[in-house]
Amino acid sequence: MGCTPVHSAAQGCSMSVMGDLTMSRVVPSPLPQSQSTMLSILWLLLSFVVSLLGFYVSISCPHGKQCQRALLSNNDIFLHCNSPGAQWYYFLQDGTNWSSPIRSVSNIETMPEGSILLRSPLPSQTGMYTCIDKKGIQVVQYEIDFQDVGTLHITHRGLGQAPLQNETLSLGQKELIFTQWEPWQDCNRCGEPGERKRLGYCYIQEPLEKPTPCQLYLGSAILWSNRMRPEMQIEACHVQCKTSDVKNVFFDNFELSEESGSAWLTCPFGSIYRPVIWESNSTPLTWQGQLSGQDVSTVLDPSSGGRRLQVFQPAIYRCFVQQEFMARFNPKPNLDTLEVLLREEARQQQEARETWKEKDSILQKLKLMLLVGTVLGLSGVLLKLFCSSQSKRSNQVLLVK
Ligand SMILES: *[C@@H]1O[C@H](CO)[C@@H](O)[C@H](O)[C@H]1NC(C)=O
Ligand SMILES: *[C@@H]1O[C@H](CO)[C@@H](O)[C@H](O)[C@H]1NC(C)=O
Questions:
Q1: In the listed set 189, 204, 237, which residue is the last one of a domain according to the structure?
Q2: Domain presence at residue 40
Q3: How many angstroms is it from 166 CA to the middle of ligand 2?
Q4: Are 13 and 143 members of one domain?
Q5: What per-residue confidence (pLDDT) applies to 323?
Q6: pTM score, two decimals?
Q7: Which partner from 30, 167, 209, 306 sits 20 to 30 angstroms from 297, CA to CA?
């Protein structure tokens, strides 16, 4: 049994977001420039916490089942298998044989609890991924079609751009090649005009058969067709705001590279599978602006669904994920502005003295957070040890009886 994205709920194949870290507001904004060093430290620490917790879009499949999915290349994905010490094997679509344990593949990491993390999967990694438990029994099997994000066909309804048309192939029996759309993601802003996107994957369907992701259908065969590509469609949206005061706030200093005159900013917690928005001077950087060629001062990276932004101006940028404020990117001051900043500094030192208390409490909160995290982790380990010694003890009791 396979599960397609459209029928995923009915057939039990599901996608979720892991490690969705929600913490109380760490830093109030806006903040004076003088706090930027402090904030860089905060950023580093928080990035560390995030990397410890992990943050991945996760695909799961019911125990003992086989699940079929189309996904995008180049975007990290987590394949779930709940079996500690499990071994993974894969069989690539390009005809490569069964590999010995997946451990040898550089962009695939096996987690202790049994799942695997694929970092920037390649289209050539399309194939079958099988999780085998310690006893050699198959736990789950995923058939994943990593569609080439480099060929993503992007259209905006507001600009009257149409998605790809259905086409008929003649591989033998008038197969239909079409885009199977995922549901629309949430609107990226609330209370004001926003944009939302949805992803569509290439599927091939034989008459009266179930559709199959294109490359999984074709196997090792190669089809030279301009229709063989994933899609992303964007449209305008306007939704009410829900009140929520839980926010993740990150800060970063960025510097334009001398060679390209630009910098790449990455929105933490953002993903091609979730709504992301970038703002500069409270003006949203829209897909409409980019796709119509109006906005040339920034570039939303299509292959990350807009999670990454290329900027050419040393301005302040903010990003939001699922309408929650995620990060603020301050430009690093350059030499020209240094003098101005030095003069500013005197004034700001005074201010800094006043806000020291505030910063201090930020650090205290952060320390507390790290401490709580460590304590929770340790108590988890202790609890596990305790439980296993308990169960050993009860086994012993049974033996004595
Ligand atoms: C790989 O697969 C081919 C065809 O399926 C088979 O003939 C060959 O023996 C296999 N090689 C290995 C090393 O298993
Ligand atoms: C394309 O084919 C799919 C699958 O059969 C179908 O659901 C969809 O309505 C078709 N779209 C158009 C524009 O004909």
A1: 237
A2: no
A3: 6
A4: yes
A5: 83
A6: 0.66
A7: 30
Kindly list the averaged pLDDT for each block of 10 residues, start to end, along the chain of length 401. Answer: 37 53 38 52 54 65 94 94 89 64 81 90 92 93 96 96 94 91 91 93 94 92 90 95 66 85 90 90 90 88 93 91 87 62 60 54 60 62 56 38 30
Enclosing domain of residue 275: 250-333
For 229-263, the pLDDT digits (tens) are: 999 999 999 998 876 655 567 777 888 888 888 99
How far, in Å, is the centroid of ligand 1 from the Cα of 95? 9
Domain contains 243 = no
**What Å distances lie between residue 167 and 150, 202, 224, CA to CA?**
21, 11, 13
Which CATH number is 285's domain given?
2.60.40.10
For ligand 2, atom 11: residue with the closest CA: 166
216 and 255 share one domain: no
Q: Which two tokens stand for residue 65?
A: 């089942």
> Quick check: CB of 6 below 6 Å from ligand 2?
no
- Cα distances (angstroms) measured from residue 311 to each of 50, 154, 286: 24, 20, 14
The residues that bridge with 197 in the sheet, in sequence order, are: 234
pLDDT in tens, 338-371: 555 555 566 666 665 555 545 555 555 666 666 6
Q: Are residues 85 and 162 in the same domain?
A: no
Q: How far is the CA of 81 from the centre of ligand 2 (A)?
A: 34
Last residue of a domain, one of 317, 333, 349: 333
Q: Do residue 15 and residue 140 come from a single domain?
A: yes
Question: What single-letter amino acid sits at 278?
Answer: W
136 and 64, same structural domain? yes
Does any ligand 2 atom lie closer than 6 A to the CB of residue 166?
Answer: yes
SS3 assignment, position 262: coil
Q: Are residues 16 and 118 in the same domain?
A: yes
* 292 touches ligand 2 (CB under 6 Å): no
335-400 vs 36-53: helix crossing angle, rounded to 10 = 30
* Rounded Cα distance, 306 and 181, in Å: 19
